[in-house]
Structures are given as structure tokens and as C-alpha cells.
Amino acid sequence: MPKIITCYELPLSERPQHETLTRWLYGELRRAILESRLAPGTRLPASRDFATLHGLSRGTVVSVFERLQIEGYISCRVGSGTWVNRVALGNAAHTRSRTAPAYVRRVVSAYVRPKPWLGIEEVGVEGVCPFRMRDPAVSEFPAELWGSIAARRARTFASWLRTDDDGRGYRPLREAITHYLAMSRGARCSPDQVIVVSGVQQALDLLARLLLKQGDRVWMEDPGYFGASIAFSNIGAKIIPVPVDEQGLNVGAGLTMCPHAKGVYVTPAHQFPLGMTMSLERRMALLKWASRAGAFVIEDDYDSEYRFEGRPIPALQGLDRNSNVILIGSFSKLLFPSLRIGYVVLPPSLADCFLAFRYRTDFRNLSLDQAVLCDFIEGGYLGRHLRRMRNLYAVRLEALLDGGRKYLAGLLKISDVRAGLYTVGLLENGMSSRQAEKAAATHGVEVFALDRYTLRRPDPKGVLLGFAAFDESAIREGLVQLAAALDHRNARDSIKEHATDAPNSATPKRN
């Protein structure tokens, strides 16, 4: 005879206020069955008795019993009552094994963590503190204006969502991006050459898989952006580390090392991470090589709008006459990080192929954010915001440079490149890049070791400092803390403590 349960304790007082009684009761009974607190064969009271016993409505109990029966947890038969079925589980909730399934163990054992993230947890600093370089000045963004545009778009949801979508993205936005790039970056393209993506990393991932195959050689700046090296390494390409100097990528060195590379990834307007601008002579030499070799050039235009002396440097794509350059960029640094909208500007002959390749992973490419960004650009708000932020960032960079001369003399020499959202400081106290990074973390300051971005180049002995998200007061306080961390009296102890650190251990996100 099955055991009849006459009183099953339901913790009514524990029901969350936002959860309906029906949903909560279903969850409680289901968990009790899965955890064997209601054992197989246990007979439940009739719905009327169950409801009376627990002070519930009979309709609620009937609804829950019917759902549990449909899903196979209980059986109900007229004249025989209701009882709990035997549920075959690999692991009951209360006896769930701590050992991962075989497929998880197989994946984990074969997984090699990308070098950029190795050991990153060792140098983390809690909270937002100088000189974190990931974010712009989010607090200065016109959030109310953005919200009002978004609300207006939401009210006319159907009108724009039903527009034709060919996978390239919201066409009015692509038209706005085309105009923006022509006016501010000197780019030459049509809306059909522009494809909206979620950001620079997605662009790099798609381009790497489209343009390269395993074993293909590709030039990269050394030091350079780790996101590109990850994208190329993922498909098995061979990265050729080409050194950079005060004029940017050394094209002559690249020709000596590997003249027949399939392509190159560059940041010519504001080299990442050192900050210099590629000279016109180098730009023309790079385009000449690409045309002669039939190679692609991926130009990452990640924060070139933020130049505080003179006008922004025109894009390399605007000089290209042979369809070798592919221009990529993102709005996350210009506006706010959670806006995951970027773009790829492709040669006309490659756009449809890129689009077809994208369809392998993403069939539609429309979003409310695209429509809102379109209005933000077309209304002139983007240009106005960029002008205001250029002035703000220029003041904050000047505060960093002045404070560096005052507090860091003999410890760290900060670059005088006046551009971007971060700057580089070269160590003068004998520390390695990662020793300085770890010493700063112990004093509540977040800087990133420059040797995290190197491929073959020896440790440049420097750190990156973000200034965009911090006002002058926070910058001064951060510099005082950084000076204490880098002081020569602390440097010897820090060098001794971290002398066994392996080079190139971790890299923070740029985008």
C-alpha cells in the first residue's frame, strides 16, 4: 500500500512577495519530489483536502496538480487518488556529484586560457579607482536625452522594426555612420559597405575567420592590441610581431620578416598601447605593400576622435585606392561601454561575402539601440557630445601630466601624447612592468603592465594609466598613491618579492 501523506509542511511564510501562489506551490512540490522529500509512491491528499489543510483555494491546488501530472511528476486516477511517480535522475539535487560530467572535463582539460588573462586576478583592485582605463566619463553622458530618444522610438516600435533588414543593420544608422565617417574621419564609403556589429571584437573574430585560414601569416604591431591576437590565434593563423617606433608600425621591418603575409592589423591614428600616430610616409608604404602583395589591412579606429591638439588624424581607409583597407570602429568608447554597437567598413567587393559569412552565426541585425543611436547622430548630439568630451578629457590629461611631473619625478615619466582615454608611463625606478602594476594594486591604484601587450618585444618597463573617467581631484589622489607604490624605498622590496614572475602574464580588456 502506498504511504498516504496527510500533512506536508509547506513553508508559506517563505514565499517571495513577487511570486504567485500557483507558481510557488508548483515549485515547492516539484523540488520536494526531485529531492525525494516526497518519495516515489507517496500518495497525496485529494485536491480538496490538500487545499483545506494548507489554507489554499482548491482551484490553485487543482491547477498545480494538473501541471505536475502533465510533466510526469505525479499520477492521478479517478477512484485511486494521486501519488508521486518515480523520477529517474542522474543525480538528485541533494546528492549531486561535485565531479563534472565527462564532456566538461574533456573541454576543461583541453582548454588553454589565452595568455592575456593569465594571472589577472592577482592584480585586481576592488571598486572603481584611478587609473582604470576601460571606461570613458560615463557620468558626463547625456543620459536623459538618450532616454527621451529611446522612449520616442519605443512608442513607434512597429514603424522602424518592420523595415527591411538585410543583415547589415538599420539602414538609416548605416547612412548616418557613413556621413559621420566621411566628415570626421575622411573615410570614403557608401552605406552598403557598412555593416553594424556588436563591437570591435566581433568584427575581428568575423574578419579573422573570413580572411585567414590555419597557418596564414598576419602582421601585428608589437606591442599591440591583444584582442586581435586572440582572434587570429583562434583560427590558427601565425602572427608576425612587427615592431613599432615613434612613427608607428615599422613597415620595413615587416617586409624583412615576412614580405608575403596575408594581411596586417594596425591602429594608425593612435597606436595601441603606446599612443603614437603612424607617419604619412609609413601609411603610404603600408598601402603600397598591401596593394603589391594583395594583402588586407584591418584599420582599428578605436578612439581616434579624442585628439586634443589639432584635428583628428584622417583614417587610412581614406587614402586607400585599391580596396585593401577594412575600417573597424565602435561607439562604446565614444558614448558608454554597454552600447554594444560597432561597424565594419568593407571594400564593395567583399561586403556581400562578409554578410553571408555573418549569417552563419547571426540572422538579424536590428535593435532598438541602433534606432536610438541613429537619432542621436542625426540630431547633432554625437558631435556636440564629442566636442564637450574632448575639452573635458584635455583638462583631465593636463592634470595627469602636471601631477606626474610633481609627484612621479624619477619614478615614472608620463608620455606627452595628447590623445585618447589613457596614456603610457615609462618606469624610471628599476621596476619591471608587472612589479609596478602589483605595487600599485597594493596601494589601491589600478594600472596595467605594458609588457602584457608585447608579443616578442622585451618588457618596455611601463604602465598604462586611464584618466578619462576621473576628475582632477581623483587624479591627484591617485598620483600620490602611485608615487608611494613606486618610491625607490619600496621598489627594492617589490622587485625582490616578484622577481620570479613570468613575463606577459595578463592583459585587461581595451573594449
Which terms summarize this structure?
511 residues; Arc Repressor Mutant, subunit A; Aspartate Aminotransferase, domain 1; Aspartate Aminotransferase, domain 2; 3 domains; 4-stranded antiparallel β-sheet; 15 strands; disordered N terminus
Question: In summary, what is this structure?
Answer:
This protein is of the alpha/beta class and 511 residues long.
Give the secondary structure arrangement, pairings included.
Layout: H1 21-34, E1 43-44, H2 47-54, H3 58-70, E2 74-77, E3 81-84, H4 102-110, H5 143-155, H6 157-161, H7 171-185, E4 194-197, H8 200-211, E5 217-222, H9 226-234, E6 238-245, E7 248-249, H10 251-257, E8 263-266, H11 280-293, E9 296-300, E10 325-330, E11 342-345, H12 348-358, H13 368-378, H14 381-407, E12 412-414, E13 422-427, H15 433-442, E14 448-449, E15 462-466, H16 472-486, H17 488-497
Description:
This protein starts with 20 loop residues before the first helix and ends in a 14-residue tail after the last helix. By secondary structure, it is α/β, with parallel strands linked by helices. It is globular, with a radius of gyration of 30 Å. Strands 4-11-10-9-8-5-6-7 form an eight-stranded mixed sheet, sandwiched between helices. The protein has a four-stranded antiparallel sheet with strand order 12-13-15-14, covered by helices on one side. The protein has a three-stranded antiparallel sheet with strand order 1-3-2. The protein is built from 17 helices and 15 strands. It has three domains: 1-111, Arc Repressor Mutant, subunit A (Orthogonal Bundle), CATH 1.10.10; 119-136 and 384-497, Aspartate Aminotransferase, domain 1; 142-379, Aspartate Aminotransferase, domain 2 (3-Layer(aba) Sandwich), CATH 3.40.640. Helix content is 40%, strand content 13%. The model is unreliable at 1-7 and 494-507 (pLDDT under 50). Helix 1 crosses helix 3 and helix 8 packs parallel to helix 9 (226-234). The chain has helices at residues 21-34, 47-54, 58-70, 102-110, 143-155, 157-161, 171-185, 200-211, 226-234, 251-257, 280-293, 348-358, 368-378, 381-407, 433-442, 472-486, 488-497, and strands at 43-44, 74-77, 81-84, 194-197, 217-222, 238-245, 248-249, 263-266, 296-300, 325-330, 342-345, 412-414, 422-427, 448-449, 462-466. 39% of the residues are buried. Strand 6 (238-245) and strand 7 form a beta hairpin.
